[in-house]
Amino acid sequence: MRVFYVVTTPRAASYRLGQMVIPQMEAGTHGVEVVGFFFFDDNTLILQKGNPIGERLARLAKEKGFLMMMCDGCALERGLAVGTLKWVTPDGQGLTEPNEVRPADHVLEGVKVGCFPDLYREIAGKVDAVVVL
Fold first, then answer.
1. Which domains are present in the chain?
2. Do 54 and 37 touch, CB atoms closer than 8 A?
3. Residues 48, 41: contact at Cβ < 8 Å?
4. What pLDDT, on a 0 to 100 scale, did the predictor assign at position 21?
5. Model pLDDT for residues 70-98, shown as the tens digit of each residue
6. For residue 71, which of 110, 29, 42 has the smallest C-alpha distance?
7. Is the pTM of this model over 0.85?
C-alpha cells in the first residue's frame, strides 16, 4: 500500500513522526510504501537544517525518493519560505497563475513549498491512502 501523510496536529512531527513513523521506516518495519509528507503549522519547524528529526526524515526521503512539502502560508509565517502565498492573494482571492515561493536557505535540502494544487499534482496516481497525523 502507498501512503501519504498529512502532518497537521500539534506535535505530530516531533512525536508521531520522530518517535513512531521514522524509527519504523529506518528499521524497515513500517509496513507501507511512504509516498510523502505534507507539513502544516508548527510541524514545519522540523524541516530546518540541524533539526534531528528533520535530518533523519530528509535522509530517508533522499534514499527512498518520497515527497516532503510544507504549506506555503505556514512556512512563510515561520520564516521557512521566501516569497508570497502561491495560489492566493494577500486579500484572500484565488489565483489562476502561481506566485513565486521557495524554501528559505535554512530549510533542509529537497523540501518543497506549496499548496493543495501543487500537492495534488505531485501525488496524482501515486497514493492508495492518506493518513492525517
1. 2-132 (3.40.1260.10)
2. no
3. no
4. 98
5. 999 999 999 999 999 999 998 999 999 99
6. 42
7. yes
Q: What is the pLDDT of residue 90?
A: 86
pLDDT at 47: 98
Considering only the C-alpha atoms of the chain, give the largest distance between any 2 of them, rounded to a whole number of Å: 46
Give the whole-angstrom CA distance, residue 36 versus residue 89: 27
Q: Which are the contacts of 29, defined by CB distance < 8 A and separation ≥ 6? A: none
Beta-carbon contacts of residue 61 (< 8 Å; ≥ 6 apart): 36, 67, 68, 110
Q: How far apart are alpha carbons 122 and 36 in whole angstroms? A: 10
- Locate 54 and state its grid cell: 528533520
Neighbours of 37 (CB within 10 A): 26
Residue 46: which residues within 8 A CB-CB, separation 6 or more?
13, 14, 17, 18, 39, 53, 54, 57
> For residue range 4-49, what is the model confidence (pLDDT) as tens digits?
999 999 999 999 999 999 999 999 999 999 999 999 999 999 999 9
Euclidean distance between CA atoms 38 and 10, whole angstroms: 14
